[in-house]
Amino acid sequence: MMSDSIKNVAIFGATGMTGLATLPLAVAAGYNVTVLVRDPTKLPADHKTARVVVGDVLNKEDVKKTLEGQDAVVIILGTRSDLSPTTMMSEGTKNIIEAMRARGICKVVGCMSAFLLWDRSKVPPRMLPVTEDHERMHALLKSSGLDYVAVMPPHIAGDLPLTESYLVAEGMLKGRAISKHDLGHFFIKCLSTTEWDSKTVGVWGEYK
Predict the structure, then answer these.
(1) Which residues participate in catalysis according to the annotation?
(2) What does pTM read for this prediction?
């Protein structure tokens, strides 16, 4: 179902695993999708996005250009398998929030990680650097004054199906995995409801 007030959606991180699963779901739901990508060849040939901006989320001008004419934003920035210290996700989010404010865009759905719902001492040490940047990103969203949804998925599975029957809870998580398709489905669903606005939510699926 499509939102009444949101027609044009910008997706950041569209060529990552979850981004590529989210794109067709956004298009199928009826949204006009704009993406900011560093490498347009990573988009599938039949991507059907309305607008492709080539650039970098760390470049403020590229972000501003991406947000021209947009009504909402989905942030699915990630470092792929690189677990070294980073500020890319938080710096990118900072640029996005700034440009959203300047353009009067209120709705943003941001993907972080379920590690933010855990006791920090239980987070595997190798995941700490990325988790710390997710934490900075979360803090920026919470203090942004925007209608943000902070999504905290557990393990994102590339090989599990779209079920649309995942579970969502504020500030907690009861499952170990979510498929990339179900996660993308939830991002898009957030655009047509205010139910999760200004909330931090866990989302998980139960798969056979």
Answers:
(1) 111, 190
(2) 0.97
